[in-house]
Amino acid sequence: MTAQPALSPPERETLSPPAEADLDLLLLIRHFELTLLRLFDKGRLSGTTHTCLGQEYVPVALKPLLDEADFVFSNHRGHGHFLARHAEPYGLLAEIMGRQGALCAGVGGSQHIYHHRFLSTGVQGESLPVAVGTALTLKGTGALACVYIGDGTWGEGAVYEALNMARLWRVPLLVVVEHNGIAQSTPAAAHMAGTVAGRAAAFDIPHHRTTSTDIGHIRAELAPLVAAVRRDSLPLVAEFATHRIGPHSKGDDTRTPEEIARVARHDWYTRYARLYPEIFEPCDLRARELVERVAAEVSARPLSVWEGP
Q1: How far apart are CA 272 and CA 287, in angstroms?
Q2: DSSP letters along 133-178, please?
Q3: Cβ burial, residue 113 (10 Å; 0-12/13-18/19+)
Q4: Domain boundaries, the chain
Q5: Is 282 helix (H, G, I), strand (E, B) or coil?
Q6: What is the pLDDT of residues 293-304, one digit of tens each?
Q7: How far apart are CA 174 and CA 226, in angstroms?
Q8: Which residues form the Dehydrogenase E1 component domain (predicted)?
Q9: What share of the chain is helix, strand, coil (3-state, %, to 5)?
């Protein structure tokens, strides 16, 4: 009998049964992203797109911790952030495909979305200074600005200027770091000196790191910390040790097959499917059918026409 390989600590983590609403959202994001890659393969999409495959649980875990009055700032890998904030897959896919019903008339595409206090950008590090300015206007209101960045963004000078101002001005800012260990094709060890925790400490900003993919566990950890951001008007850096199981964009994955297989073992999708099939399977089917309907309907729409401001 062949011995099974030892699993790393995140893979041995016991996942609690997911709430159906959380699982529905996780699977909506998963199948939305997979559908985008299929549409690209068929030549139905132009430009580029960056999927969050493997990282979907981060915005889903944060969803109930964010209020309607909060602002959310995203990045190039932001479809999951958007869908966790606004359950509008038709509008998002129409935007990416440049079809009628698009969120921004089709001029934003995959990376640049502005919709009801949600803003994403493909320019690395751009969101953080804008989020600090927005958070400054939110002081004393109980609302906050949440900004998602990756480990690669910590090479941008604007990040440090923004963090410095955020701490000096004591603004209600939640910085969510999706640390997947690779910036496009460069491992974190080759592009980052020190740690995210050390850099936050340099600005006297509280830092919390989690390796968990258990949504309930993550929320329990972060709920009091996010509440303190609102109450004390003080920034927080929340770092997620996560894994990108899909390509950087479209099909350009430069990792070795062995590395891709290693990160895939951390995927919440296969673990939930194995642990809770009676909950997972009907939710998975429902999400697949929903995204298929979205793709069919949006693909049949006429092209969007930008008529100017």
Answers
A1: 15
A2: HHHHHHTTTT--EEEEEEGGGGG-HHHHHHHHHHHHHT--EEEEEE
A3: buried
A4: 18-297
A5: helix
A6: 999 999 999 998
A7: 7
A8: 28-274
A9: 50, 10, 40
How many CB atoms within 10 Å of residue 240? 24
In terms of CATH, what superfamily is 18-297?
A: Thiamin diphosphate (ThDP)-binding fold, Pyr/PP domains (3.40.50.970)
How far CA 200 is from CA of 19, 162, 175, in Å, comes to: 33, 12, 10
Give tens-digit pLDDT for 110-149.
889 999 999 999 888 889 999 999 999 999 999 999 999 9
CA distances from 104 to 36, 74, 116, 281, 296 (A): 18, 16, 11, 34, 20
Whether this model's pTM surpasses 0.70: yes
Q: What does each C-alpha distance from 147 to 99, 165, 170 come to in angstroms?
A: 28, 15, 16
**244 token code pair:** 């990108």
- Considering only CA atoms, which of 168, 170, 195 is closest in space to residue 181? 195
Measured distance CA(16)–CA(272) in Å, rounded: 9
